[in-house]
């Protein structure tokens, strides 16, 4: 069987039919991507169900998330049989924190940095602090990884002559 699209291989595997040849590398990657995508979409729906105020919307989102997780589990079992993957999904190994917790952590770390490094009489530092606060706030709102902002802050402080 020759597959032309990612969905072709996924549908074929979920149908229960066997493949009489080894899978190509792009087919293996397509299966892995689909599993990760299903799990991520399920997590997104669960987050929506948690945030929504409508019980009907929450139940619908939870049902959709459950169906996606079941499909991901089924596809993962097939992938393990075909020796495509042999490890646990990465989502189980990540720590989840709320935006409120993240903001508190950022605030505490920023205060530590400022106490260690800061001479608040320097106008460049005051401007930098305001810009950094805005950048962290925008990154959190957009759901962007903020680790790069911390590195930029450290580089800036080092360029100003503050050692840490």
Walkthrough of the structure:
The protein contains 6 helices and no strands. The protein has helices spanning 6-14, 25-51, 55-81, 99-117, 123-142, 147-159.
Q: Secondary structure elements and their pairing?
A:
Layout: H1 6-14, H2 25-51, H3 55-81, H4 99-117, H5 123-142, H6 147-159
Helix pairs in contact: 1-2, 2-3
Strand content: under 5%
Which class best fits the helix and strand makeup? Answer: mainly alpha
Shape: elongated
Give the radius of gyration.
23 Å
Count of β-strands: 0
Question: Which parts are unreliable, with pLDDT below 50 for 5 consecutive residues or more?
Answer: none
Quaternary state of this entry equals single chain
State the end-to-end CA separation.
60 Å
Helix tally? 6
Helix content: over 70%
Tell me, rounded to a whole number, the average pLDDT: 77
- State the domain count: 2
Order of helices and strands: HHHHHH
Largest sheet: none
Short description:
The protein has 164 residues and is mainly alpha-helical. It is built from 6 helices and no strands.
Descriptive tags:
164 residues; mainly alpha; 2 domains; 6 helices; elongated
């Amino acid at each position: 069987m020759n597959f032309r699209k990612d969905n072709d291989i996924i549908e074929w595997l979920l149908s229960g039919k066997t493949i009489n040849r080894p899978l190509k590398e792009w087919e293996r990657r397509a299966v892995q991507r689909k599993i990760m995508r299903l799990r991520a979409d399920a997590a997104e729906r669960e987050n929506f169900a948690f945030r929504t105020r409508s019980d009907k919307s929450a139940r619908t989102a939870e049902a959709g998330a459950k169906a996606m997780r079941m499909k991901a589990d089924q596809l993962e079992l097939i992938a393990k049989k075909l020796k495509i993957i042999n490890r646990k999904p990465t989502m189980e190994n990540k720590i989840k924190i709320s935006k409120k917790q993240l903001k508190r952590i950022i605030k505490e770390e920023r205060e530590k940095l400022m106490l260690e490094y800061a001479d608040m009489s320097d106008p460049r530092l005051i401007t930098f602090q305001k810009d950094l606060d805005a950048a962290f706030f925008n990154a959190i709102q957009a759901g962007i990884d903020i680790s790069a902002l911390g590195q930029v802050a450290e580089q800036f402080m080092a360029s100003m002559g503050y050692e840490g």
